């Protein structure tokens, strides 16, 4: 098992523009680096479910069951669209004064977990990516998959945390401007909506 190669590829993939990193950036800009890190921790916690599913072979059940896959992706899409509506409705709130205090840390953490678990794209990615670094001749394939999952979670958390801190520092002055703050709320809502709608069109290639 090429751990260095796996970590290198994982870091590059995590840094690529995608839903998770966009969510971390928007949360960090709107609510500060602590909120971004808490949200990232929730996302990475959700990876535990996907890792366990892949390592135990349960992912094959979902992969071979169109109905289960459709249910999961529509649940994920519905949740993201709901978050989009909520973000839009609260677009005029005082972000600096209200969001950092009223947005409970536990709520942010749970949001990250749910968004990750309900995203079937993550599971499909694990199914396609992890086996490339596993030795199929070994008997403990599940153990190797589990190890890869843990390593992926750890690197993702460090990358997301770095992005959260950087986003907060770069946007601190800009967030004092009301127009920028309002624009970020619109962007947050649009990101949720776009990813939610895109989930509806996710399919499995047999």
TrEMBL record:
<feature type="transmembrane region" description="Helical">
    <location>
        <begin position="37"/>
        <end position="61"/>
    </location>
</feature>
<feature type="transmembrane region" description="Helical">
    <location>
        <begin position="113"/>
        <end position="133"/>
    </location>
</feature>
<keyword id="KW-0472">Membrane</keyword>
<dbReference type="Pfam" id="PF01810">
    <property type="entry name" value="LysE"/>
</dbReference>
<dbReference type="GO" id="GO:0015171">
    <property type="term" value="F:amino acid transmembrane transporter activity"/>
</dbReference>
<feature type="transmembrane region" description="Helical">
    <location>
        <begin position="186"/>
        <end position="204"/>
    </location>
</feature>
<keyword id="KW-0812">Transmembrane</keyword>
<feature type="transmembrane region" description="Helical">
    <location>
        <begin position="145"/>
        <end position="166"/>
    </location>
</feature>
<protein>
    <submittedName>
        <fullName>Threonine transporter RhtB</fullName>
    </submittedName>
</protein>
<keyword id="KW-1133">Transmembrane helix</keyword>
<dbReference type="GO" id="GO:0005886">
    <property type="term" value="C:plasma membrane"/>
</dbReference>
<keyword id="KW-1003">Cell membrane</keyword>
<dbReference type="InterPro" id="IPR001123">
    <property type="entry name" value="LeuE-type"/>
</dbReference>
<feature type="transmembrane region" description="Helical">
    <location>
        <begin position="6"/>
        <end position="25"/>
    </location>
</feature>
<feature type="transmembrane region" description="Helical">
    <location>
        <begin position="67"/>
        <end position="85"/>
    </location>
</feature>
């Amino acid at each position: 098992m090429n751990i260095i190669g796996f970590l290198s590829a994982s870091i590059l993939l995590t840094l690529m523009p995608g839903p998770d990193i966009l969510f971390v950036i928007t949360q960090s800009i709107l609510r500060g680096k602590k909120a971004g890190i808490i949200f990232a921790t929730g996302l990475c916690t959700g990876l535990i479910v996907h890792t366990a599913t892949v390592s135990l072979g349960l992912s094959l059940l979902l992969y071979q069951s169109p109905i289960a896959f459709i249910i999961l992706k529509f649940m994920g899409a519905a949740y993201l669209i709901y978050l989009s509506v909520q973000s839009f409705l609260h677009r005029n709130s005082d972000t600096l004064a209200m969001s950092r205090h009223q947005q409970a840390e536990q709520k942010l953490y749970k949001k990250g977990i749910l968004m990750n678990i309900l995203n079937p794209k993550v599971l499909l990615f694990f199914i396609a990516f992890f086996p490339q670094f596993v030795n199929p001749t070994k008997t403990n394939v599940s153990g190797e998959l589990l190890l890869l999952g843990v390593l992926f979670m750890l690197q993702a958390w460090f990358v997301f945390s770095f992005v959260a801190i950087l986003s907060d520092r770069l946007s601190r002055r800009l967030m004092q401007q009301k127009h920028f703050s309002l624009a970020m709320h619109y962007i947050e809502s649009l990101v949720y909506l776009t990813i939610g709608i895109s989930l509806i069109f996710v399919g499995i290639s047999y």
